[in-house]
């Protein structure tokens, strides 16, 4: 179920990007919505799990490591994660670098899923929600290139397949780690989530004017995540104390 959801979220996003990729406003709105969702999952689900762990006091370093790791990955992906389109300068971004950056990003997010006790955990839904807009942009980038090029090429399909399988592969690897390491991986992913969502929310305000649509989308994303938080059973959090 988890693996299927992860793969379907990427396929659905790529499909939408291929057919609606010219609508950059739609992708931006999806991203803003997902950022509100992601930052709420981060603060209500990920960080409480991290800081109720026995090593809680030292885990802040790993959160910061996650932020720094995401900054390094963005040097490879050129900001795909937060909606930087590359329609007009495709050659400025190497598909190999893009593939490596996105793969590592999704792979690391998948590792903590190995120890999730609930199938439809808010953490999983956070990744799924986050995958949709990234895959939308990926689909728009790969399959809406200039006329004369093949709309669907094997390298493009390979990039999509690798991105779709990255989180499930991370989850598979996570099964081989000591469950006690879970808070450390969650802390790193928390840092990644925090960086991406805050950049999306704060970077696109033109001249610091109030953008009511953006605020509304963030509030909607936050509300969706809070509803899931309220209906999710948290009795297992910190159960080893």
Automatic annotation (TrEMBL):
The chain crosses the membrane at residues 55-73, 93-111, 123-144, 156-177, 183-202, 214-232. Keywords: Membrane, Transmembrane, Transmembrane helix. It comes from the Bacteria. This is ZIP family metal transporter. It comes from Chryseobacterium tagetis. The lineage of its organism: Bacteria, Pseudomonadati, Bacteroidota, Flavobacteriia, Flavobacteriales.
């Amino acid at each position: 179920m988890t693996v299927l959801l992860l793969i379907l979220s990427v396929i659905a996003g790529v499909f939408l990007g291929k057919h609606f990729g010219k609508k950059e406003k739609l992708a931006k709105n999806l991203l803003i919505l997902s950022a509100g969702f992601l930052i709420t999952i981060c603060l209500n689900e990920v960080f409480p799990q991290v800081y109720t762990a026995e090593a809680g006091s030292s885990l802040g370093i790993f959160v910061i490591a996650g932020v720094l790791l995401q900054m390094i990955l963005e040097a490879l992906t050129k900001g795909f994660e937060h909606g930087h389109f590359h329609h007009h300068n495709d050659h400025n971004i190497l598909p190999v670098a893009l593939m490596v950056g996105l793969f590592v990003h999704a792979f690391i997010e998948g590792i903590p899923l190995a120890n999730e006790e609930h199938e439809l955990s808010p953490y999983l839904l956070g990744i799924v929600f986050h995958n949709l807009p990234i895959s939308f942009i990926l689909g728009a980038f790969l399959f809406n290139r200039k006329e004369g090029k093949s709309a669907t090429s094997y390298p493009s399909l390979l990039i999509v397949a690798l991105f779709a399988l990255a989180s499930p592969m991370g989850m598979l690897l996570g099964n081989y780690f000591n469950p006690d390491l879970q808070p450390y991986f969650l802390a790193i992913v928390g840092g990644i989530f925090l960086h991406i969502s805050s950049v999306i929310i704060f970077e696109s305000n033109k001249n610091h004017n109030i953008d009511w649509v953006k605020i509304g989308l963030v509030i909607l994303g936050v509300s969706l995540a809070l509803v899931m938080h309220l209906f999710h059973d948290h009795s297992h959090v910190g159960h080893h104390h």
